[in-house]
Amino acid sequence: MSAVELVGEMARRFRAGDADGAFALLHPRFSIEQPASLPHGGRHHGRAGMAAMGAEFARHWERAIVRPRILECGDGAVQITTQTWTARRTGRAATVDVVELFSVADGLVAEIRVFQQDTHLLLATLDPAPGGPVLDTPKPAVEQ
Fold first, then answer.
1. CA distance 88 to 137
2. φ/ψ of residue 30, rounded to 5
3. Interval 62-110: pLDDT, tens
4. Rounded to whole angstroms, how far apart are CA atoms 3 and 73?
5. Is residue 114 a contact partner of residue 35, using CB atoms and an 8 Å limit?
6. Measured distance CA(82)–CA(63) in Å, rounded
7. Distance between CA 105 and CA 38 in Å, rounded?
8. 97 FRET partner, CA 20 to 30 A, in 5, 57, 68, 79?
């Protein structure tokens, strides 16, 4: 299976609610890295690390993912998605693009490095600003 097919299959299994099946596609020395500024951030190792990171994320947010694009990148793949994170405590939401770099070893996902477009915007959803507006998708940058 190519890296693009592998990442697509893992995403399909997660969407189907088959976390065990998705985790079966992780290399024994798997690691995932999220920005350290996020509550679930840092480097997490193995299937247990991935599960703990996911549980910490779920304590804070619900997430909707749209427009996944998976591209070949050398021996790995890049996944680009648009994600809306809604804070469980405040109900505030923000939409950002997320880029994930996948490395593959022995036909399994060995590493994922995750880059959210605007972590400050995502963290702002956790702030219970009384009467504050629900955050929305930021306006796209103007190309020069």
1. 18
2. -60, 145
3. 999 998 999 999 999 999 999 999 999 999 999 999 999 999 999 999 9
4. 9
5. yes
6. 10
7. 27
8. 5
Backbone angles phi, psi at 48, to 5 degrees: -65, -40
pLDDT band of residue 129 (cuts 50, 70, 90) is low
CA dihedral of 118, 43, 13, 119, whole degrees rounded to 10: -10
- Residue 42 pairs in a beta bridge with 34
Q: Which amino acid is at 83?
A: Q
Q: What are the strands of the beta sheet with 108-116, ordered from one edge?
A: 42-45, 26-34, 108-116, 93-105, 76-87, 61-73
Q: Identify the bridge partners of residue 66 per DSSP, sorted by sequence position.
A: 82
Helix, strand, coil share of the chain (percent; to 5): 25, 40, 30
Residue type (1 letter), 70: I
Cβ atoms of 121 and 137 within 8 Å: the answer is no
Report how far residue 118's alpha carbon sits from residue 107's, in angstroms, rounded to the nearest whole number: 32
Concatenated DSSP letters of 96-125: EEEEEEEEEETTEEEEEEEEES-HHHHHHT
51: which 2 tokens? 């599960």
Q: What percent of the chain has pLDDT over 70?
A: 89
